[in-house]
C-alpha cells in the first residue's frame, strides 16, 4: 500500500436501476488517487454523482463496475478506517453532545473509557469544551456540525469523507467553519475528501480539486491548487486564488450550474 495511493479509484461506474423507469448512469469511468494526509475536494453540478462517489468510498453504496480501495483495502462495505460527515449533523436529539460523539465507539464496541478521553479532547479542540452535557437543540448550526466532525473522528479513522457539511450554514459561519476545518485537519493528520458546490470553498481548503462533468459524472480535470499553507481567508482575495477559481469555473458554462 503506497502513501501516494491511500485512496485508489479505477474505472468506477455506477448505474442505478429502477423497476419502473430507465436506469440512471450516475458515474462513468472515474479514476483518481488520493495521497495519505492529502485534502481533496470534489466539485461539479447538481446530479453529477458527487455524493454517490462519496458513498461508494464509504462503502454505503455499491459500485457497478471498477475498483475502489481505501487504506489498502477493497471497499465492499463500510470500513472502520473511514469516518463520514453528512450535509446535516444528524445528531440524536435525546443524547448529549458527548453521548453523540461516542456513538461510533459504542457501535464498534471499543474501549469506552479510552475513547471518552479522546472524545473530550476532540470537543476541546473544536471549541466545544464545556458543552459536553448540552443537547443538540441547545447548540447553533455551526456548533452542531463541529460535534458531527468530532463524532466522525472519534475512532481515529484513516480517511474523513465530508458531503457538503457547511452548505446549510450562513456565509459568515461557513467561512469560520472552513478555517476551523483546516485547523482540525492539520492537527489530526486525516486524509480528507470533501464534496462541495462552492468553487471558492474548494480552492481555499484543498490540495487538489477533482472536477466532475454533468451526469454521468466523469472527471473533467484534476486541478492542483498551488497556494501556500497555512491559509487565511485573505488568501482568497489574491490573484493566484482567483486564477484557480476561474480555471475550475470554465468547465461550467451554464448559469446556475454550480455555486460561485
TrEMBL record:
Pfam families: ABC_tran. Keywords: ATP-binding, Nucleotide-binding, Transport. This is ABC transporter ATP-binding protein. Residues 7-239 form the ABC transporter domain. Transmembrane segments: none annotated. One of its GO terms (molecular function) is ATP binding. It comes from the Bacteria. SMART domains: AAA. PROSITE patterns: ABC_TRANSPORTER_1, ABC_TRANSPORTER_2.
Amino acid at each position: 500500500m503506497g502513501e501516494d495511493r491511500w485512496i485508489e479509484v479505477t474505472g468506477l461506474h455506477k448505474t442505478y436501476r429502477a423497476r419502473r423507469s430507465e436506469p440512471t448512469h450516475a458515474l462513468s469511468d472515474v479514476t483518481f488517487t488520493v495521497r495519505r494526509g492529502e485534502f481533496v475536494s470534489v466539485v461539479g453540478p447538481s446530479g453529477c454523482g458527487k455524493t454517490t462517489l462519496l458513498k461508494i468510498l464509504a462503502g454505503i453504496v455499491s459500485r457497478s463496475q471498477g475498483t475502489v480501495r481505501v487504506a489498502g483495502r477493497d471497499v465492499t462495505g463500510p470500513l472502520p478506517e473511514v469516518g463520514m460527515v453528512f450535509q446535516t449533523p444528524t445528531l440524536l436529539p435525546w443524547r448529549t453532545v458527548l453521548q453523540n460523539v461516542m456513538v461510533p465507539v459504542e457501535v464498534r464496541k471499543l474501549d469506552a473509557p479510552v475513547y471518552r478521553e479522546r472524545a473530550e479532547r476532540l470537543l476541546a479542540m473544536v471549541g466545544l469544551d464545556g458543552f459536553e452535557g448540552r443537547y443538540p437543540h441547545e447548540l447553533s448550526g455551526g456548533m452542531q456540525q463541529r460535534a458531527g466532525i468530532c463524532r466522525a473522528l472519534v475512532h481515529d479513522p484513516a480517511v474523513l469523507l465530508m458531503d457538503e457539511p457547511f452548505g446549510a450554514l450562513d456565509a459568515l459561519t461557513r467561512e469560520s467553519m472552513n478555517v476551523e476545518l483546516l485547523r482540525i485537519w492539520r492537527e489530526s493528520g486525516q486524509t480528507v475528501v470533501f464534496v462541495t458546490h462552492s468553487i471558492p470553498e474548494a480552492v481555499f481548503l484543498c490540495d487538489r480539486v477533482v472536477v466532475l462533468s454533468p451526469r454521468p459524472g466523469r472527471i473533467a480535470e484534476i486541478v492542483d491548487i498551488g497556494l501556500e499553507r497555512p491559509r487565511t481567508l485573505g488568501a482568497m482575495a489574491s490573484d493566484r486564488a482567483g486564477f484557480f477559481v476561474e480555471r475550475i469555473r470554465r468547465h461550467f458554462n451554464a448559469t446556475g450550474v454550480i455555486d460561485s
